[in-house]
Design brief:
eight-stranded antiparallel beta sheet, about 300 residues, about 15% strand, 8 strands, 7 helices, 3 domains
Length: about 300
């Protein structure tokens, strides 16, 4: 009779083991189903994000989630619990991707806005310079820089930022160079105006009837012409750097040299314009009387400095 009791106990242990195995199988099946569902959800979310403009902001994270999902699927055959854990981690990350993408999108937009504001401020400075400057060369050069900024602004409108900040920096540097060059030209022109004014006044003091200054654009010179009652003529060409070319006619011998010295002395004493000693190129035209010698033309006297 006792053997029957032992046999029932052994049968019970086998049945319990079978039940445990069956329950574990069902649990693993359920875990497998849950994991597969999570992987499917992850795939759907990734697909949705990829179809929007947000994907570019989280490309690395999307690649990481995709790789993690594939690892979870491969673990289903060997370790469903590890597969479920991997899938769960992937789902947590993928659920945060939309918020992360939006955050980065806003950051990028803020950066684009900052660059655009800098561009617009630089363009405004160029336009202000053009509105207030009378330097046509500088304004033309500034317009080329403005065109570069307008082109960059079009790229910003398309969401392109690459290289634009460096372009703005280059434009700023070049604009400063244009301003400096324009200022130097302006100072040089003001100095030339003073030289021309002093030259005209000096010629009039010495008896010349002097016409209004004429600008020879192609030569970059201002021309003054004067005539005395006795027919003597004098022409001066003043360059922007202060160099003066002179042409004197109607003088006997080298009287013109003395007359030129008188003009330069008057410029120095009355107007504060100092000139270097003139260099003469002597000529002997046919219309000078037979007893006349030579008189100068085409020489130059470089203005060295002066004040009002």
């Amino acid at each position: 009779m006792s053997s029957r009791g032992i046999s029932r106990a052994e049968l019970e242990r086998r049945r319990q083991e079978q039940i445990r195995k069956e329950q574990e199988r069902k649990r693993q099946d359920q875990v497998r189903v849950n994991t597969q569902e999570m992987c499917a959800e992850i795939e759907a979310i990734i697909f949705d994000i990829a179809s929007t403009n947000s994907a570019g902001h989280i490309r690395m994270e999307m690649e990481e989630v995709t790789k993690s999902r594939e690892e979870a699927i491969s673990l289903l055959k060997s370790d469903v619990d590890a597969a479920e854990q991997k899938a769960s981690q992937s789902k947590s990350l993928v659920n945060a991707l939309n918020e992360l993408a939006e955050s980065r999108k806003q950051e990028k937009q803020m950066e684009l806005d900052r660059v655009k504001l800098e561009l617009e401020a630089t363009l405004m400075q160029i336009r202000k310079f053009q509105d207030t400057s009378s330097d046509s060369l500088a304004c033309s050069e500034a317009e080329l820089l403005a065109s570069k900024l307008l082109d960059a602004n079009d790229r910003i409108a398309r969401g392109i930022r690459t290289g634009i900040e460096s372009e703005i920096t280059v434009v700023k540097t070049e604009m400063e160079q244009i301003k400096v060059a324009s200022s130097e030209r302006s100072v040089a022109e003001e100095c030339r105006k003073h030289i021309v004014k002093s030259l005209r006044g000096s010629m009039q003091e010495l008896g010349f009837i002097v016409g209004n200054p004429k600008i020879i654009h192609e030569a970059g010179q201002v021309v003054l012409e004067g005539q005395m009652a006795n027919g003597r003529l004098a022409q001066f060409r003043v360059s922007v750097d202060g160099e003066m070319e002179f042409d004197l006619e109607g003088y006997v011998g080298r009287e013109c040299s003395n007359h030129l010295d008188a003009v330069l002395e008057e410029m120095r004493d009355r107007y504060g314009v100092n000139c270097t000693p003139p260099q003469h190129n002597w000529k002997n035209p046919d219309r000078i009387s037979k007893g006349s010698k030579d008189f100068p033309t085409g020489g130059s006297s470089k203005q060295m400095g002066g004040g009002a």
